[in-house]
């Protein structure tokens, strides 16, 4: 949300600089994400001065150029070559001095340099409108009034003032602050001062009843106000109005539409202007749409309405989707002379559902679906009508129509002073609590020494309980003003060891040290990524069709990140994420924690001294084994990874429970996520990991003083035999002295029979109490050979 510094001053006297105000707004909960200067004229006319042309002579070497001397109030006059047809002695002109930068209306800015033009020195430039951003005319130089003072800065002559734009990261609960008056309310509360009251004294309603209004759905529209304005002239808005809208990033359209946008961002009240002459039967009907009723919206799209949609119709047809979007045939155009101006309070749920149903997001729906102020509709109408008369002429031809059968009541409840102090943790006096509450616009019905009976305005849709008011008090009192106690009381930590957060940080450090980057993805995703739609956790009111389901797996979160990076030419990725998955089970909702790892692209950053090797299965296996080893998890069983996510891969199990599955992601999943090339992925069951390592017993033994011995064997085995089988056989054969088993060569091909392969294994043997003798080592090797021959029909190669 964008807020103008100068616009705020319409509502409150501010004696703080924009930078100071930015910090104050952030401290009261309206986080200013960006503060930037906005110039009404690009370049702000910097470096331009008022000058007087003293002499003007024909250029000796060019028929269309003149040589002038110009007084800008300096010690010496400037010699300037000018090609404008209207330049003459005695004129007051705009001079761009050497070193200044001019910003033309079209084209790029350029710097003024001292130069020679056809042999004559030129020490600046005499400027036309289009050359300095004052307009589009290219007829000649700007002729200033003769009483303009020489040497005056042009920005002062034109009274050019910079504005500042605050980009506020508005949280969803703060619908009340989605306007300049809403932000000003928080500033006023912070300084305990009053807002300026709008001057509506010039408003005079007419006597005619030009348009009949019928509200058939009072649930959808609890309040509907309107007024007729006749004899308007649709045209371009005046500069001040265009500047206000431009500062906050709104494109001016015409004076009528611009006024409705101005009021929207000024007061937070959406308005809609209808061409009165296009309202059939001169009748406005607020009703539910007919099922499958056809309506063409302002963007030219033909939409099929639902019976749940609230519309504004005339006697024959729909004119507008209430609170969301106008129609193509009833809006204001250049030929409009009479308008019906609508200001309404629509049902929050109705607007939200309609906006989502038709995938229409507008500034109006943004406010209506979060909650607007039902008490401001008439005030907004009056202010808009006055402005329309100022910028478009015309007269108010009708009385204000205001259909408000049941007044929306404020939220009423009690606030206990001691409860405020208890939750905030600060001894705030009763009077200060009360003054903050009043400054926030919250009424007080009754009070006592212990509590206040408060009346919260309906526009504060997020303040409905005592704790909400306490949060408001703290927000204005200031989080930074809550003192930290010198002594912090705490209880002993009785949580299980090791702490899962500590383990999480240790693994994160391990992965980062190995070149991985941590990512954090949205746990909301689309149903198409679910493993099982029947058990998927769906959202009742999703923000979009791509965010309608709680994720059931971590795979597509990782693939989405890979796809996003690939499209930005960053395909070499090593990423990890700690996250949760969700599902519905027979016992209710299930939430599981995971550690997910994904790699893609090249294994190393491309350098002159390394090869462009792509990542493969063994890269993901290496990081999985590193984590398992780091956590000292032993006794794992191995089986193939599930084929629904993996083209090939492995699953490590502890007992019967899977600990981690990893491998190459299946092609179907890659296509679904729009990922190119191969991706290797690992998914750890975090909850299972924590259970296992909590059972680990730390053992210490002295480092052996006796040397280890290495022996190698080359075995010819069937292709179906795995290294894991051979390792298991070896460990069963020699449980005490065998420390490690590794494979250092695998060969298939020439001189190897079909269906066979050659494995070269190394065995590390060590006795921790004495030096191993050759006789003892040879006996162990013979026993290994015997068991390999017996269990997997291995043959020892020479």
Q: Beta fraction of the residues?
A: 25-35%
CATH superfamily grouping of the largest domain: Bira Bifunctional Protein, Domain 2
Q: What order do the strands of the largest sheet run in, or round the barrel if closed?
A: 28-31-32-36-35-34-33
CATH-derived architecture of the largest domain: 2-Layer Sandwich
Global Rg: 38 Å
Mean pLDDT over the residues: 91
Name the shape in a single word: extended
Q: The CATH topology of the largest domain is what?
A: BirA Bifunctional Protein, domain 2
In the CATH scheme, the class of the largest domain would be Alpha Beta
Briefly, what is this?
The protein has 798 residues and is α+β, with helices and mostly antiparallel strands. It has 6 domains: 2-40 and 162-191, Phenylalanyl-tRNA Synthetase, Chain B, domain 1 (2-Layer Sandwich), CATH 3.30.56.10; 42-157, OB fold (Dihydrolipoamide Acetyltransferase, E2P) (Beta Barrel), CATH 2.40.50; 212-403, Phenylalanyl-tRNA Synthetase, Chain B, domain 3; 414-480, Phenylalanyl-tRNA Synthetase, Chain B, domain 1 (2-Layer Sandwich); 500-694, Bira Bifunctional Protein, Domain 2 (BirA Bifunctional Protein, domain 2, 2-Layer Sandwich); 709-796, Alpha-Beta Plaits (2-Layer Sandwich).
Key attributes of the depicted protein:
alpha+beta; 6 domains; OB fold (Dihydrolipoamide Acetyltransferase, E2P); Phenylalanyl-tRNA Synthetase, Chain B, domain 3
